[in-house]
Sequence to fold (109 residues):
Amino acid sequence: QVQLVESGGGLVQPGGSLRLSCAVSRSIFVAMGWYRQAPGKQRELVATITRDGNSNYASSVKGRFTLSRDNAKNTMYLQMNSLKPEDTAVYYCNAYENWGQGTQVTVSS
Fold:
């Protein structure tokens, strides 16, 4: 079974930045994605990347978030800039139809 481990979450003020990481236990030369779930809401797509490296973003984060990956390290990243309180959620990565445990992001002054 594939293991995914997210890290990098935390508390940040509005306008701040965080970089999330998702370490995967096997090759990440596959389609992957970041999702988030806020309290009382359904899990939603944040960003995805295809096997060929084409990325796609939710309209709510486009221009602020950037997904990237390091194939040599089997790690995917989510650079989050200009964070807003509405970005507060648990962030999950997905690959091989498996989920990580999530990392909490809280945007608050």
In short: The two ends are 40 Å apart (CA to CA).
